[in-house]
Amino acid sequence: MFSTFQIALHYDQQTYEESHLITLLAEDSEYAFQLMYDRHRNRIYHVAIRYLKSPVLAQEVVQDVFLKLWIERKNIKTDQPLEAWLYTVAKNNLINRLKKIASEWKALTNLKNLSNEFVNSPSDKVEESQYSELLKKAIETLPRQQQTVFSLARNEHLTYIQIGEKMGISPLTVKKHMSRALLHIKTYFEGIEGLFFFAILINLSFFF
Amino acid sequence: MSKNDRFSYLLQQYTSGSISNDDQDELFELLSNSHFDAVLGSTIQTELQEGDFDKSADLPPHIAQEIIRNIFKAEKNTARILPIRKSFKTWKWMAAAASVILMVLSGYLYFNSSKKSIQQSFASLIPGNTISKYNGTLLPEVVTLSDGSTITLLPKSTLHYPVAFNGGSREVYLEGEAFFKVTKNPQRPFLVYYKNIVTRVLGTSFIINTNPGTGNVEVVVKTGRVQVSENEKLVKGEQMNNAVIITPNQKAIYKINTRLFETTLVDKPEPVANDDANDIALTHIRKETFIFSQEKLVNVFRQLENSYRIEIVPENANLYNCLFTGDVSGQDLYTKLKIICLTTNSSYEINGTKILIKGKGCE
Fold first, then answer.
1. B59 vs A15, A42, A98: nearest CB
2. Model confidence at B43: pLDDT above 90
3. Which residues contact residue A183 at a Cβ distance below 8 angstroms, ignoring those fewer than 6 apart?
4. CB B64 to CB A37 under 8 A?
5. Using CB atoms, which residue from A1, A11, A43 is nearest to B267?
6. Which pLDDT score, from 0 to 100, does residue A201 have?
7. How many A/B residue pairs have CB atoms within 8 Å?
8. Percentage of residues in chain A with pLDDT exceeding 90?
9. What is the per-residue pLDDT for B44?
């Protein structure tokens, strides 16, 4: 049963005791489940969006929480408000997801600090004048998504969150694109440097 | 600023979306160890309980439906290994006769507030010459009435019925739960008195099921027709509320506090057998096929309407032009509609006893 039950909700919300809904739920009532879902899903969704900054991830949270409710429906206590159960599950789900994102984020931050040097300051081997030209060429060789992320960050000075909202991706994905872009540029520069070194070798070889 | 304050500040900046990249790096650095888990947890908890949110950013309805479908689907996959579905025996039994199902849910509120007075007056209604059958066993017991109707009385339930039916109508009084199989006789309506409502059976068989726990009384009809109204004798002097007649796949809800009836659809509509309840052979649940190939929605809905006897109303006529291809024979009605809506970029909702289809439709 997948309807929105707007009419049913209108009176059921007032008259159905929550403890009774939990009893019905324990008896496999999809209807009771739908009522609870309609009552609580948006609150969880809103908070999840605030913490995960991604509609897709927030939808996953809602699904996780209510899938758990459906699976555990025979074990829910009737003497406590269902809200408390749902919010605890939602809270733990959010903490776990956020911490997972945080550890990936941290790894990417470390990676970025490494490669950032090459983009911010030209290494001695590449001359200042050539640097911006080379950077432009390096950016052109980036995949589209990375190019967009890179230019929004560099030229429009948007934050990860703002870029994510603009592109409809999570801030972590933005950061991944950014890291990959920086790594790519770094590799590009290293390749150029290699060429320079090679050219110098060839030049030198004339003297020997 | 203490470390906790700094963390809370960064978290607040982050959730509001105004955090700088450097601050976000710092926040996620702090998050990746567990010093601040307690602060994080209580912040999330408070927002879940007290947050005030913009309705426009709600979970979009089509995604909400998708999620609930995923949940039930996930369970069905599990169910294949560990069957948890209820047995179908009862349904077969009921389908054997054109059936009207009456499910009455009644509750604490009612019990606590008005049980005594109603029961006293209810008892005063029961004629003196009736037989009172109380089922004190742990198993359902079958009672056969003088007109041939059979009533399966559930444990801890009492049925008051006359030795023989005299007069214009057949009247029985129920306390508790029972299944009814009523012989059809249009000249002598069959009435079940239950608390302060009367159920007038215009079909052949039905169930009354009492389940304490809610203040509402629900009457659910499978096939046939049932009229539900308040018992005049018990609400004497007060204004009479409207009676409702419900037909297959509909249910009436009697709100104990407002004493009003409302009608809506049942949770799981089933295809409705032919109305001619005299012919038992016609009353088995039809196994229909719903296979469509480039079919206009106008025809798809017509077949669903005929099969389920539920009115399907599109928001605008353009919806009728959409084409649907697919086999939805195996699904229940709401899943069928979900699939059809998904492929035609529309959605549906239950509005009273009708189903409303929303969407732009097709040119």
1. A42
2. yes
3. A111, A115
4. yes
5. A1
6. 53
7. 169
8. 31
9. 94
Residue B321 has pLDDT above 80, yes or no: yes
Other CB atoms within 10 A of residue B122 CB: 20
| B residues 216-235 lying closer than 8 A (beta carbon) to A | 216
CB B297 within 8 A of CB B348: no
Q: What contacts A190, CB < 8 A, 6 or more positions away? A: A118
Contacts of A49 in chain B (CB under 8 A): 57
pLDDT recorded at residue A200: 54
Contact B59 A62 (CB under 8 A): yes
**Interface check B268 vs A, CB under 8 A:** yes
**Closest C-alpha to A154, from A130, A185, A126, A129:** A185
For residue B34, the 8-state DSSP code is S
B259 pLDDT higher than 80 = no
* ipTM for the predicted complex: 0.78
Residue B125 per-residue DSSP state = H
Rounded CA-CA distance B72/A30 in Å is: 9
**Residues 272..311 of B with a Cβ closer than 8 Å to A: which?**
none
> Euclidean distance between the first and final Cα of chain A, in Å?
85
Helices (H) and strands (E) in chain A, counts: 9, 0
Segment A153-164 shows an average pLDDT of 90
* Among B292, B299, B354, B294, residue whose Cα is nearest residue B329: B292
Phi and psi based region of residue B151 (left: phi greater than 0; alpha: psi -120 to 50; beta: remaining): beta
| Residue B218 or residue B7, greater confidence | B7
Sheet holding B354-358: strands in order across? B311-314, B354-358, B347-351
- b (16+ CB within 10 A) / e for B267-296: bebbbbbebebeeeeebebeeeebebeebb
Report CA B173 to chain centroid distance, whole Å: 25
d(CA B12, CA B16): 6
Tell me the nearest-neighbour CA distance from B120 into chain A, angstroms: 25
Helix (H, G, I), strand (E, B) or coil at B97: coil
In sequence order, the 6+-apart residues with CB closer than 8 A to the CB of B82 are: none
Q: Does position B283 have pLDDT exceeding 50, yes or no? A: no
pLDDT, position B109: 33
d(CA B162, CA B146): 8
Task: Determine phi and psi for B177, rounding to 5 degrees.
Answer: -125, 145
B136-177 pLDDT per residue, tens: 888 888 888 888 888 888 888 888 888 888 777 888 888 777
Test mutation, B24, B30, B32, chain A, max A CBs within 10 A: B32
Q: What is the pLDDT of residue B242?
A: 66
Looking at residue B117, its pLDDT comes to 45
Instruction: With H, G, I as helix, E, B as strand and everything else as coil, classify residue B293.
Output: strand
Phi, psi of A202 (to 5 degrees): -65, -45
- Which one of A75-79, A85-89, B346-350 scores highest in mean pLDDT? A85-89
Are B44 and A3 an interchain contact pair (Cβ–Cβ within 8 Å)? no
How confident is the model at residue B79, as a pLDDT? Answer: 47
Residue type, A190: E
